[in-house]
Design brief:
Number of domains: 2
Number of strands: 0
Number of helices: 11
Shape: globular
Radius of gyration: 27 Å
Order of helices and strands: HHHHHHHHHHH
Largest sheet: none
């Protein structure tokens, strides 16, 4: 009796199975990595902010260190940076406090103008529609007071977490600015000799891209904020300084940050100055978007990795889905760093 011959497996199926289990292993590793990062995302955010502070202040600390010892130079640079940030926030607070009475009156009159505007063609909104909406909002706030209070308490806990992350970011930036190169050299020495060269090439490319992107995005955000602040001040829109600061912060989210900030400015202009000024502010969204996309980014970002707008859009959306606002901010520099490392290692092999 002849022994049964084992079934033959096609080479294609054997190759596909080999790739399949490897892909499953890689997918499990990536999922585990993101699961760990998700549980400790505050630490990741703090270290990212520490790297941003380092990228911004280390050149200043290097200049100061030419006249002072390294330690006092780093301390002086960090204190000057903190004073600058607190000074800007104080200026914004003073601007809001000084215009509080005028703002309340202008917004009350502006809401009345908006109601009368919506009652005319083409909207023809019923006169009691907005008043009914206001009463419903008031009833909702009264009936859900306890839920809102618990939300506020949990929000206070989040504020504590944010302050802790900021403290960790400042603490880590002290060591990054003072002796980050020595820390990186120590890390390389712990690796096998066979990979130290590639890690060194990738690390240099990553830091060069990250610092270039950080300097570029700060310069782009500052330019946008100055343009928006001057335009809103010239149009007589209240809260020009706080809205310019909002534009500065929003510019760190490419493509969608600036339009959202200017949309808020348009709502303020509509309530305080009327539809004509609001329309001009909306036109600013198009103008500043063109300046940012066709002038600032090509010029300012020339030392960093330039990504295709489609890649930027996908990165921002994917980052926002994965980690909210923080993911939207981190996504583009992360993709830029990964691509620069890939390019540098590819060039080193050739």
């Amino acid at each position: 009796m002849q022994p049964a011959t084992p079934p033959t497996v096609s080479p294609f199926l054997r190759t596909a199975a080999a790739y399949a289990w490897r892909l499953l292993a890689v997918g499990l590793l990536v999922y585990s990595l993101f699961a760990v990062l998700g549980r400790f995302h505050e630490i990741g955010v703090a270290l990212f902010l520490g790297l941003v502070i380092t990228a911004l202040l280390r050149p200043v600390a290097d200049l100061v260190a030419r006249r002072l010892p390294r330690g006092p130079a780093v301390a002086l640079t960090l204190v000057a940076g903190i004073v600058l940030v607190l000074g800007v926030l104080t200026l914004v607070g003073e601007a809001v406090a000084g215009q509080r009475g005028t703002l309340v009156r202008e917004f009350r009159d502006g809401v009345g103008r908006i109601e009368r505007w919506l009652q005319r063609p083409p909207f023809r909104l019923a006169p009691d529609a907005l008043s009914g909406l206001q009463s419903k909002v008031g009833d909702y706030l009264s009936s859900h007071r306890s839920d809102l209070l618990s939300t506020a308490v949990s929000g206070a806990g989040q504020v504590v977490a944010v302050l802790a992350a900021l403290a960790l970011a400042l603490f880590s930036s002290v060591f990054f600015i003072h002796s980050g190169d020595r820390h990186w050299a120590w890390f390389q020495e712990q690796l096998p000799r066979s990979v130290r060269g590639r890690v060194g090439i990738g690390g240099r490319a990553a830091w060069s891209t990250f610092t270039g992107y950080t300097h570029g995005i700060v310069l782009v955000a500052a330019t946008n904020a100055i343009l928006v602040g001057i335009a809103l001040w010239a149009l007589g829109v209240p809260l020009a300084v706080p809205l310019a600061l909002l534009e500065f912060v929003a510019a760190f989210v490419p493509l969608i940050g600036s339009p959202i900030a200017l949309a808020v400015a348009a709502i303020v202009a509509l309530a305080s100055q009327g539809p004509l000024v609001a329309a001009i502010v909306i036109a600013l969204i198009v103008v500043i978007g063109q300046i940012e996309g066709h002038l600032l980014h090509p010029l300012v970002m020339s030392w960093a990795v330039r990504l295709h707008p489609l890649v930027v859009a996908i990165s921002v959306i994917a980052g926002s889905i994965a980690a909210g606002v923080v993911g939207a901010v981190v996504a583009v520099p992360l993709v830029s760093v990964v691509w620069s490392v890939h390019t540098a290692l590819k060039e080193a092999r050739t």
